[in-house]
Design a protein that fits this description.
alpha/beta, TIM Barrel, eight-stranded parallel β-sheet, binds hypoxanthine, binds zinc ion, Metal_Hydrolase
């Protein structure tokens, strides 16, 4: 029998909640700053890491948007994503659905084309190097206006056949899903899948809005849904995937201690929870670190870990046949490794 760490790293899994800008490691931040001739307000990598102490989501977002300033060229976006794919492959990820925030870049004068072409070339390379499949999710910044979200969707038009879904991220409180109902409807009319961050800091009402007004296919986070019994029952009944991010929850003070993480309660309540890394460079770990952290803190067994991996495939936006072949691959791997 393999030890639990080896089991977790080898377990075939999909990552469904990953912000590519949040995978910018401090050493790459320095390398890109040097390459692009940009001054950054940190003396060294240790100073960057020391700055990553967050009291809430907004503390993190301020530092995360500042860090993204070193990303300027198509090559930078390629290198960022290539580094993520290498790390993810080592963690047993066979499929990744990657969010990117175009507005963080276009607002600084970076062409949309540079962002997406750099990411797409890294996606193709990940398939060739690691046999890893991937999809892109264009995420709107919810602190910006509906009009700006519509402009971003229009800018994405030439690449819509290479974008799987739209998402909604950034400052949750005060920016309810309702604000984006029309742009989500427009994205749905274009055949895109829909996801939204809801119930990370925001109340259960925001989760209801994501379901009823945005008509999302997945909820990103969803922790605060647990405060509402009827909502939990509905999410379970509808088989709604929740993309849960344990180390993010800890770093952003959604929970006080990893021992308090509700992942096993979510499974026991029949919720289709998955484990993801969110912004791994900022939150202290990639996807296998997230699995390991809750496995240790909550005493998860191999069946629970396998369920989480299974949920990651059935909750993905892959075509049915690809979901089926990933489930088969997982079943075979489990037969050899339990
Ligand atoms: O966890 C998050 N929440 C909201 N917005 C984000 N943008 C990157 N990560 C996050
Ligand atoms: Zn997120």
């Amino acid at each position: 029998m393999t030890d639990l760490d080896t089991f977790i790293a080898g377990l075939p899994k999909a990552e469904l909640h990953l912000h590519i800008e949040g995978s910018l490691e401090p050493d790459l931040m320095f390398a890109l700053a040097r390459r692009n001739g940009i001054a950054i307000p940190y003396a060294d990598v240790e100073a960057v890491r020391a700055a990553y102490a967050f009291g809430n989501l907004q503390d993190f977002l301020d530092i995360y948007y500042a860090g993204a300033d070193v990303l300027r060229t198509r090559q930078d976006f390629h290198d960022l994503a290539a580094a993520y794919f290498d790390r993810a492959a080592a963690d047993g990820v066979v499929h990744a659905e990657i969010m990117f925030d175009p507005q963080t870049h276009t607002a600084r004068g970076i062409p949309f084309a540079a962002v997406i072409e750099g990411l797409l070339s890294a996606c193709a390379e990940a398939e060739a190097r690691h046999g890893m499949t991937s999809l892109l999710i264009l995420s709107f910044l919810r602190h910006l206006s509906e009009e700006e979200a519509f402009a971003t969707l229009a800018e994405a038009e030439p690449w819509l056949d290479r974008i799987a879904a739209v998402g909604l991220d950034s400052s949750e409180m005060g920016h309810p899903p309702e604000k984006f109902a029309r742009v989500f409807q427009a994205a749905r009319d274009k055949g895109l899948k829909l996801v939204a961050h809801a119930g990370e800091e925001g109340p259960p009402a925001y989760v209801y809005e994501a379901l009823d007004l945005l008509k999302v296919d997945r909820i990103d986070h969803g922790n605060r849904a647990l405060e509402d019994k009827a909502l939990v029952e509905r999410l379970a009944r509808e088989g709604m995937t929740l993309t849960v991010c344990p180390l993010s929850n800890l770093k952003l003070c959604v929970i006080d201690a990893i021992e308090d993480h509700p992942i096993d309660h979510m499974l026991a309540l029949g919720l289709k929870a998955t484990i993801n890394s969110d912004d791994p460079a900022y939150f202290g770990g990639y996807i296998a670190d997230n699995y390991r952290a809750v496995a240790a803190a909550r005493g998860l067994n191999r069946d629970q870990l396998a369920t989480l991996a299974r949920n990651s495939f059935t909750g993905s936006f892959l075509p049915e046949e690809a979901v089926a072949s990933n489930l088969e691959r997982l079943a075979k791997w489990l037969a050899d490794n339990v």
